Structure formats: structure tokens, C-alpha cells
Batch of 3 targets.
Target 1
Amino acid sequence: MTESEPQRPNCRQTPQRVGLLGIYHETNTFIESATTLADFQNGYWLETSRIRDEYQGANHEISGLIEVIDGAPDMELVPIFYAMATPGGLITRDCYLALLDRMMQLLDEAGPLDACLVAPHGAGVAEGYPDMDGHWLSLLRQKLGVGVPIIGTLDPHANVSQAMIDATDGLIAYATNPHIDQKQTGIEAARLLVNTLRGEVSPVQLLVKPPVAISIEQQFTSNQPCLGLYALAQELEQRFALVSMSVLLGFPYADVHEMGSGFIVIADRNQSPAAISQAEEAASILSAFLMEHKQAFNGKKSGVQAVLRDFENHPEPVLLLDMGDNIGGGAPGDSTLILEHLETGGFSDFFICLYDPESVAQCGEAKVGADVSLFLGGKRGLKTRVEVLALYDGHFTEDAPRHGGFVHYDMGPTAVVRTMGGNTVMLTSRRTPPYSLRQLTALGLDPHSFRGIIAKGVNAPIAAYGDVCPSIVQVDTPGVTQADMTLFEYKNRRAPLFPFEESV
Ligand SMILES: [Zn+2]
């Protein structure tokens, strides 16, 4: 790690120089395999101007950050470093230190900054650094000094720590799940930074962590109980004239002290000397609401057999959400459990995408039109004969506002096959979360031609498939992202914490 003297905020030259950086990862600590440097290199490793190349104009928070600073004649954006990997297991120590080292090196090379925009996820865990985001943000604060505003965005799945709050002047989380307001959140954060630099706002922020962990099953913000929680947050923001009131849904699959819900309230000291007490009052009202409705945030959990028994009652195509194999929560995306139930139950004309590089290679050798015998999905997967329908390079793009805000997708070599049972399976060489309908349409597949689409997610795929699928059913399946968090063994979580302890 690079060590050097903290830079003093230098004189306020015009234009004011605003840095932009972030390390972004949602870490599932219940996964055996680690997240390594290769995962970031295969994900997003963007230095200086490449950040702008990738995200300018995208539906992503960085796009919003860029847009606002570009539009401020007295500011200059200095893109520094942004690294992101698909959600996965614990980040190795070597990987984290390499990321940090490179970020600090580029920060040195960027020269003096008047402010810094940051884009962490907020649920990153590295080996030896359980609060990874709190750690790198604290180092950034040390380096820039207390007079340099650090403001940024968070994913609402962040398990926010006090260290993240202490190191920054303002963090604003996306207010939707699926996350379709990422760009808007970037715009809000960058406006706060601009107004802070101009002396028009003096932000003060507060973190409150109610003793409740919200089930992933109940984190869809267009439905209750989230609707009520977010509506109250918005109402309180106006009632107390707050700068921002963020709801953190939390990420249940990280065995860290901060796991669970939280609220970040930002108030303006310029508006009222009592800003912090107003923030406290607003947060306590929101906390009381969550505590009162905590049972509703626990979920109902329907297994695959129950879902298929009831299948005829749903208008088609039905979106079946495989909660236990949620790629966006770090799962492998290779479980064939639902497919096996479909095949043995005589259900045909379904679509499923599986991460399975070995089967892709076998299909590639066999060529289109051939029959091959495959072990689909994970090593304990489904052995079956399939017909190879098509082979692709696996690239497609998305330009609509979708969860994750990604533009360029790379699934690696990809095969589409049909099983003996009449179901269509897409096999990819890279884990690809189901955030874009283009995953099907770009490869010539018509989503309307299926009775059901199985997506490896819980809420995020709804932004992609909601318009196509009139029925959406969450399926409680086993795995490293299973809906019932009480089935995991936590050593480091807070206690008492609902639903682990009923009396909180
Ligand atoms: Zn998220």
C-alpha cells in the first residue's frame, strides 16, 4: 500500500478539481470460493479517462456524477479509479491490497483535489477487512484531509458502518430495488458536492441502524412493505427539510457486524443550527416504523413444489425467481434444481440460463444441430441429452435503465440448447446476472415464446422481465443466497437482531 504525507487541500483554484473513484463489490461471505484480482480484471477495472468512456451517458451512478460536474462551469472532473467485480465470495487480502495500492497511486498522480466523489457499494468484505468500504474511505479521508468534501453514492444493499459515515460528508443510496435510479442518485450526490463546494450547503450526516435485518424476499421497492417505508422516508425528508434520507435495506449474506438495515440522514447546518437533532428525530421516526412492521419484512417463502403445483393459476410467461442461486447476491448461477423439477414434472417450454463453461465447450465441439449428453449446471447438476440450437460469442449491450446500470455485457462463449423435456437452456462461460432482456432478444430468443422464465435473482430481474412476464413468483430454493437468513451460521452479526432474535 502506498504511504505518503496527507495532501493539504490546496488553494481554491478555478476550476475546482473533483476526483472520482470507487471500489465496488457486494461480498457474500458464505461462499467458499474467494473473489480474486482476476474477477475485478474480468469485471470493471477502469483507470482515468476509461471511467468516462464506459459510463458517460449510461444508467449508472457514475454517469450522473459525470453529468453534473461536467455541467458546472467552475468544476473539473478528475476520473481516477473504479473497480467492480460481479458479487461473489470474500475478497482475498492480496486482491484488496492491490486494488487499494493502485487507487492510491492514481490518486497521487491525479494531483491536488478540492473534493472527491466516491462510488462504493457498501457491502464489500475483504480478508482481514470486514468493513472494506469503511477502510478505504477512511484512508481516502486521511489522505485528502478534513477540509476536502467526500460525497458519494451507495447501493441500498450496503451494510453501512459508522466508519463509512465518519470518513465522508454525505452518502446517498439508490431508492429503488431493482436499482433503476442509479443515475439519478449519482446526480443527487454530485449536486450535493457542487453545492457544498460553493458553500451553499453544509452537510452533516447521521447513521441509524435499527436491530432488523430485512429479508431479501421483501426488498422489492414497488411492493409493500417497502412502499410504506420509502414513502415515510420521503415524507420525513420534506417535513424536516433534510438534504437526503436514505434507506439501506442491507445485504443479509455477509457475516459482518454491520449486517442489516440502516438509515442515513443528511441535514444542512446552513439551514438550521439544530440540523443534527432534526436528523435524529427523523431517523427515530423511521426506525420506529420499521420496528413496528418488522414481521412484514420477513417474507413468506414458497418452495419449488408448491410453486409448480400452483403454476396453472398464473398468466404466462411466468417469471420464476430462483432465490437461492441469486447471481447478484454472489451465487454461482448454476443450480438446476428448478429445471429438474420441471423436467420430471412434465413441464416444457421454459427458459433458464446457467453458468456452465464446461458444457459450452462440449457444445462448441459438437456444433449446431448435434445431440450431446451434458451434465448441466453445477457438478451435482442434471445429466441429460440436449440438442445444440445455437452458439454465440456472448456479447450484448443494454441501453435502458436496468438494475446494475451495465452497458456492455460479456457472457463469454455461449450455447443455447434444448433438453429432451422441451426446455430451452442458455449456457454461459461467465456468470451473468439476469438484468437485461437483451440477454435473450440479442440472441434471437423471443421471451413471449416461453411459458416461464427462470431467473437467477430475487428482485433485480424484475426490471428486465416485468414488462414481459405478467406473473412474478419468488421461489424459495436452497443455496448461498437462500431466502431464510436464519439458516446461515453468523459469528459476527449484531445481536439482538430480528429475525434471529424475536424480541428486539
Ligand atoms: Zn443492490
Note: Residues 93-110 form the longest helix (18 residues).
Target 2
Amino acid sequence: MFFRLFGKKKKDEDGALQHHNSEVPGNADWSFLGADMHSHFIPGIDDGAKDMAESIAMLRAMEGLGYNTIVTTPHVMSDFYPNTRQTIEAGLKQVQDALKENNINITLRAAAEYYIDEYFIQLIDQEPLLTIRNKEVLVEFSMMYEPPMLNDVLYKLQSNGYQPIIAHPERYLFFHKELQRYRQFKDRGCLLQMNMLSVTGHYGKGIKQVAEQLLAKGLYDYCGSDMHHERHVGVLKAITNTKDYLTFVNYPFLNSRLCNVSEG
Ligand SMILES: [Fe+2]
């Protein structure tokens, strides 16, 4: 596999990653990740793909970037995107059919990006949640303030046998002055998912800096495109021409373990 060119990834005593390679290869792509686990490809059910044509264009681009597996994650947010297992599974089937019709060789599954709100708290008890893998559940929360029930909800998830994956932790500005919080999430058994676009400055300079710090400390577990529209494809492509790409190549992301899994 491509990443073998770069040798084994290691962490030093402090858990920080050692970077061994410094040249961007000419054939840069994302095939070493294999799988993407955060995106919005099911059309019309959230703020992602607007229609099937856009969804297929993005998925074709993902195939071109080297991905072979995608776990797409529509928003479940009661106020704005009241998706259910049924709306997501019905939409997934339509996109899977369209992938076949368009000869796109990507294995597509669906989970969800659950927004932590009162509805979600009830849902945990009501029905099995849609998972990225095994019992891993992708969650997000307000970017404006820390939800007062955050720790209780994470605990509730864990008590129900789930492992929370916190989506794009670098985007929560209220944690930027309390970097120890990120390690606390890890210490209590949560996984952290970085948005790949964060290292480009796409969401702002502060978010870029925090993403770089979390990468350097080895605190991330997964990375995801969080792709919503075709403009994000261009940003993902552009990363492969920069030194940031080497950071990804040298980092032990867990994405590839999502390949060849038949269900979440
Ligand atoms: Fe998202």
C-alpha cells in the first residue's frame, strides 16, 4: 500500500507523533485512508447534497481521490434536520442504486451525525443508534456554547454500550482556551474525529492551529471530509499538494478499519 513508502508511524514518550518524511509524492491521493466516515451525501435530507446529481458528482470525486468506502453521516438534529433511521436508510438505498447506475466503485454505508439535544437524549433509550462501526456513534453539539448536559450525555451513551466519536472537536471555540479538555474526552473513552479541512484554515486560523496541536499530540482517532458540497472536493484535492498532506500520511488514523465492514 501507498503509505508503506513512508515507514512506520510512531509516537514519542509524550504521545506526540514523529514525522519521518518531508516530500509530497507525485501520486498523492487519499487511498491510504481507504474510508471516509463523516459526510453529507444523501440528497435533500440535510444541508449536504442538494440533489442526486450533486451527490453522484461528489461520490465520483471521492472515488477519484482514492476512497473505496464511505460511511455517510446525515445530520440528526430535531430542530432543523429531523432525520430518522427510516429517512436515512431510504435515502441510502437511492444513492446506492445511483452509484451502481453510474458505475462508481465505492462501498457506501450510512450512519448519522447526531446533534446532542433533548431529542437525542430520548433516542438513546428508544432505538439502536446508527453507528460508524460496531458501537461507535458520531456526535456533535452547539458551536456557540458547551451544552450543560454534555458530560451526562456522553456518560449515558457509554452506559448504553456506545463509544462516542466527537465530531470536529477543533471547531468548538469554547474549548480553545482549555486544551486539557480534549485529553479528558480521550481519557474517558471518547474518540476524536478531525475535519480534514480544518488544517487548511477553511474554518479559520484558530481552528487550524488547534487542529495542528491535536494532531501533534496524537489525540485524533479518525479524520473525515465532512463534505457538504462540491466546493469541498477542491479543498480536499488541494491538500494533497501541500505539506499538510504528509501530516495525514504519517498519522495513524483508524479510517482504514472501516473498509470491508458489511454493517455498522
Ligand atoms: Fe458534518
Note: The longest strand covers residues 136-140.
Target 3
Amino acid sequence: MTFNPSKIQPAIWSRLASIVHKNKIGSAYLFSGPEGSGKEAVALAFAAMLNCNAKGDTSCGSCASCIRFTSLQDEKLTLMFPLPGSEKKDSNASDPLKGLSKDEAAYLLSAIESKAHDPFFQIRVPRARQILINQIRELRRTVYLKSMSDGRKCVLLFQAHTLGKGIAASANALLKVLEEPPPNTTFILVTDYPAQLPLTIVSRCQNIAFPPMNGETIGSALAEKGIEESTSRLCIHLSDGNMHRALNLAAQPSEELLSQIRDFVRTIMKEDSGTWKSFSQEFGRMSRFSPEEYKLRIALVQKWFHEAYIARTGAGNGNNFSEFSEDISKFNQRYPNADLKGIHTVLDNIVQAPDKNLYMPLAITNMLLDVRSHLIDSS
Ligand SMILES: [Zn+2]
């Protein structure tokens, strides 16, 4: 996939380009910002630019270095992301890749290839929860060695907040590396959740804060994939500037999408023990086996309630979600005092619930009860 980082995040890119031109390249950056704002894609493009032979405003894409970087095959480029395994210190297997099953190893190979073709592809190894201490140990063994070619080594850590999980052993190990930065090396920590990183790490990095991607940029990415305009308009609206979500939405028929949202909202409204039970089980399974789908479905329902809030307060232009305007106006008539902000918080919490090791079917039933209790607000 050819893509131009100066188009997807223009302000960020001009800042990065000026860092390169002034030759003030730092040893550690933190790319933070909402999901789907192009952080990983821009990090890959920045790594390529740092090593491009042409020295233009972006990487040229055609010199020998750029070709190796865009195929993610340069020995100076290290990609790190969560792998399956435990955080415990014992593990004799110093090579973290040895802990992978055959299927996981095969997934990893194809995922890296997908990432090379599409910088918006998300690498998600099954069972992986964090960047492991062994991965950082392995990095420490190799990152101080002299590289075989000229140029700058780039270490990209995706989902970097997972370094801070548990007792933060991985974060502490990385901190030692950041405190003695290897020569001619740039670390880029990429995360949606910078607040989950220890401050000691954050303070070692220059923070580059990404805004959500604008609708026009998402629209042209969808157009490039041949998505028709009416679908594209709906996806842009539902995506909230999140490129991953927009691509994900565009991959399924709009009708199906709309009926999923409608069913979810109806399930909440209609307190029926049989429906609630099967709903809780379905979403419990989804949270485990398709966590991305789970997050997306809840986000869309949040969006629905957000639109109900906009319709009620008269903020915004009001015609954003025409597919649901009838449902929403009925809802607002029936529940004029519903605590919509409270509902938003309840849904936020259920998105995070799988990370907290709760028994999900029960957590989901409680979520339904909670939302209902906010419908009739006594205040
Ligand atoms: Zn180049």
C-alpha cells in the first residue's frame, strides 16, 4: 500500500520532518493518541524517513533503504508488540519467540507481511497480553551491538502501555535501556493509553500527541478500497476519526451493521430474562474470542446514545445519524429524563471489563441492569 504520511496526519508529519531536517533526532519518542489515528503508520514512515537516502520531505519509497523499510525487512528496524507468555522472571527460554505455538508462529509471519502491505493492519497475536520482560532482555542484548550498515536503528514498540502491566518488569527493563541510550538509535513507543505507562518512562520520551484522523482522510482511504459513497459516509460518521474502525465497518454490509445496533438497543429497552441471558452469553463469548468485534459493537451503541443526547440538547447539526432518527426521537419521548452520560460511563466500563478478568456473562447482565437504571433518572 502506498500512503503518504503527510496526508494522514499533516501537522504531526511536518513536525517530524522538521526534526529530521534540523538533525535534532531524539533517542525516544512517545506517539500517543486515540485508536486509529495513524500512530503506527506514521512511526513506520518516520523510521523509513530517518534512513532514506533521498532526504526529502517524506521517505522516497524507492531507494534501497526505503524498499527494505517498507517491507519491514531492514536489520536496523525492530518491531516489538505483545507476545504470549508469562511475566515471571524464571523462564529459561530467553528467546520469547520460542514460547509460540506453531499456529501463533504462522500467524506472526503472515501478520508482519500484512503490516508491510497495509500500515493500518493491527498485529494481534492470540493469547498475547503484554510486551514480555524476555523481549526487552533480548533487545538489551542486541541493541548495543554495532549495526552492519550505516543509518539509524529504530525500535518501534506497539501497544507500549502493556510494558506497564503487572509489576511493570518490562517497563523497568526498558527504562535501563532508555537511561543509557545506544548510539544512533531511536525508540518509538506507540500507545492509545499513555497514562498506563510509568512516568519514569514517559519522562524519558518526547511526546507526540496525535489527534483523531479527519473524516476526509478516512474517506479517501475508503474510496481507495472501492467503498461506495453512502456506505463511506456512514462509516466515517460511526468511526469518530478512528481509521481501524472505519475500515472494519466498511468491510461489512451497512444493513447488517445497522440492525446489530438496533438489536442491541432493543435488548436494553426490553427487559426480558430469556433475551438478556442469550445476549450476555453471546457477548461474553465475543469478548473472549473476538475482542475487537466486542469493542466495536459497544462503541456503536455508545454512539447511538450519544446521538440521542445530541438530538435532545440540540447540539451539533442533528442530521448525522438519519438511519436512527426515528428510533432516537421515540426514545427521547419515552425516557425524557434518561441519564445519558451515566449510560456512556456504564458502556465505557464494560469495554474495559475483559481486561479485569471478570466473569463476562455476569458483567454484561449487570451492564444491562445498570443502563436500565439510568433510563429513569430521578434527579
Ligand atoms: Zn528512500
Note: The radius of gyration is 23 Å.
